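Re: the 302-residue chain
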Amino acid sequence: MSGSRDEGAGPHLSGLEAPLREALERSLADRLAGSPGAALNLDNAFWGAPAPRDLGEALTRLGPTCLNVVARIFERLRDIDPALGLWRQIRYLRNVWCGGSAGFKVVYAEPAAMRERLDGQLAGTGGRRVARDTVLGGIEHQRGALLGALARSWPALLGGGEPLDADTWREVHEPDQEAVHLCVGKIEPRPPELDDIHLDWRSPVVGVDEATRRCRYGLLISVVHWLQARFGLGKPVFPFQRIDEELAALSERRREAAAWAAFAARWRDARWTLAMRGSEGAREAVGWLRECEAMISAQEEA
């Protein structure tokens, strides 16, 4: 690939919101220092490579798609709790993923305090509402395989009990739209897989049962949501990833090489800033993807 050299995320760190940057820096610094509980922090940045030297290198290894996911979750937690009490309960960010859902594993500063703050957002005072899942609504986030979790949870399902392994809360915002889902494990010592915060691309929540203070779900959208989260069916296009994949294939596109080199240089200058701008940056990246796809179509038709 010709054009300007990609210097990674480092030169663009000023674009991160300060509380988000602080959490990322703490996660990396404590892992590098060998602090207790920090061994899995920012794990993607350590896979198959020496330890990153600084936050810029760590985020470069995460890539713009994963960085954008983190920024979008920060935004949604801020919309729920503008005072950032929820965000400050995140001590460490662990591995980041994107697919049928997208998010990161976490270490909470105080799990009990996180539960209390989440329950305190039921009324939505000052921000968006958050409500607990029913036992069935949170079944995917219990330990073990789904059928095993269902079997173990059967008494709670019939008797109105509580989830066995993890309590889960969902953002109550717009049905069938992107929303945040928060999981807080109940087991000590804490298994890493139970504590996470992620985006559901198509939220199944249609409201709150005010009597039980639990989420209400739409039947059809719940099926769609489950198929997407479980199997990735209908998951969204990730524009940062798609554009990078197309540019990685530049060696196969010898026609219009100058135009592709110019696009690649502009994209390298823009992508990290866009990734750090969360939802707005993701929407702008879709425009870049359309431009990229138009160039591909023009070549194929020529």
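The longest strand covers residues 90-98.
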